Amino acid sequence: MDEKKTPLLDELEKGDWPSFVTEIKRAAAKNASAADLLAQLETSYENKEGYWKHGGIVGVKGYGGGVVGRYSSQPEKFPHVREFHTFRVNQPAGFFYTAEKLRQVAAIWDQYGSGLFNLHGSTGDCILLGTTTENLQPCYDALTECGFDLGGSGSAMRTLSCCVGQARCEKACIDSMNIIRELTLHYQDAIHRPAWPYKFKIKVSACPNDCAAASARSDLAVIGTWRDVLEMDQDAVREAVDGGFDIFNRVIRKCPTEALEWDSGKRELKITAEDCVHCMHCINMMPKALHIGRERGATLLIGGKAPVVKGAMIGWVLVPFIKMEPPYTEFKDLVDKITDWWADHGKNRERVGELIERMGLSAFLEAVGLEPLPQMVHAPRSNPYIFWKAEEVGSHG
C-alpha cells in the first residue's frame, strides 16, 4: 500500500508505551481499509472532528447482536472505510486461547476484514475491527466453523466475562470460568437477540479482589467471597513479624473496619469476625499466614456502569451471600426476575441501576422478591421523613 504521511499520529508513537498507531501502520502496509483508517484518523486530528457515523446494529442470519455497524461520513475521501463494521466475538472464559486458535482467527480476519484486533473490549469480547457488509456473513460462517460464536451488542445481554478464578488463583472462592460458561450457554437467546431497554452486563470475579472489575463495569456483578471467618496460621504470622514485617502499619491500621488486633503478649493476631468485611487487604499482605474461609459463595452487586444517561455508578449489594453451585438455578431465577421488571418499566437506553434509582429500591426488591437488608444501603438517608405502608405496620391500639 502507498504510505501516507501522518505527522500528528506519529507523535503517538514517541512515548514509552506500545502505540495503536504502530499496529495500524503494520496492517496498512497490506490492507487498504487499514490504510484508509489511518488516513481518516490523521484527518480527524487535523480538523478536530470525528468522521464516524454510528450505523446501529447490522447482523448475520439469525443474530440481531454481535456486529456493530459503522460507516465513514467521508466515503468519497476514504472509500475503503465506507463500511467498517466491528465483530464482537465471544471470548473463552478467563481469556484462555491456544496459539492455533488465535492464528485461525487472524487468518479469517485477514481474509474478510482489516486485520486489526482489539484483545479485549471492555465487555470482554475479542474485537475484530473493520469489515464490509458483504463480508459479514462469510466471515461469521468461517468463525463458526473455527469454533467461535458472536458476543452481545445492542440492547441485549452483553458477552459475559470473568477472571481466571480457580484456574490460576488460590484466593478464588467460586469457579468463575464454569459460571460464565454455564450462563453463556443458558442465555444464548438474550445475547443474540436484543430485546431490552439497553445493555445488561454480568461479570464474575472469583474473590473480593475483583480482578474482572465487575463492581464498576457490570449491571450484575458476582464477587466470590466466604461466609465464615478467614483462616489464620499463627506460626506464619509470628514468623512474618519476627522477620521484620510491620504488621501494625501494613495490616492492622489498614483494616477498614478495625477488625484486626495484634496481641503482643500472646503474640497472636486476633479478629472480630462480625466486623470483617472481607476486603482481602490482610490476605494480600500476608498470603502465607491468612487465607479465605471455607464456607464459600458470592456477593451479588447491582447497578454498576460507565456514564451514559447518568454518571458512572458502582454496584451496590443486592444479595450479601449466595452459594454459586451448578446449575446456578437460584442465580438464573434472580436474573430473569430483574430483567423482566427492567423490560417492563425501563426507558430507552436506561440501565437497570438507573431504573432502580428512578423508581426506588423498595419497588425493585418487591418485584424481584427480595427482603430488604442493611447491606443493601447504597448511601445514608438524605430525607429525614420516613414513610411506610399501613399494612407494613402492626396495630397500635
How would you describe this protein?
There is one protein chain. The radius of gyration is 25 Å and the shape is globular. The protein is 33% helix and 17% strand. By secondary structure, the chain is of the alpha+beta class. It is built from 14 helices and 14 strands. The chain has helices at 7-10, 20-28, 32-47, 99-112, 133-146, 176-186, 188-192, 214-217, 234-242, 247-252, 281-285, 329-345, 352-359, 361-368, and strands spanning 52-57, 67-72, 85-89, 113-119, 126-131, 161-162, 202-205, 220-226, 231-232, 260-263, 268-271, 290-291, 296-302, 316-322.
What is the topological layout?
Elements: H1 7-10, H2 20-28, H3 32-47, E1 52-57, E2 67-72, E3 85-89, H4 99-112, E4 113-119, E5 126-131, H5 133-146, E6 161-162, H6 176-186, H7 188-192, E7 202-205, H8 214-217, E8 220-226, E9 231-232, H9 234-242, H10 247-252, E10 260-263, E11 268-271, H11 281-285, E12 290-291, E13 296-302, E14 316-322, H12 329-345, H13 352-359, H14 361-368
Parallel strand pairs: 6-7, 7-8
Antiparallel strand pairs: 1-2, 2-3, 3-5, 4-5, 8-13, 9-12, 10-11, 13-14
Helix pairs in contact: 2-3, 4-5
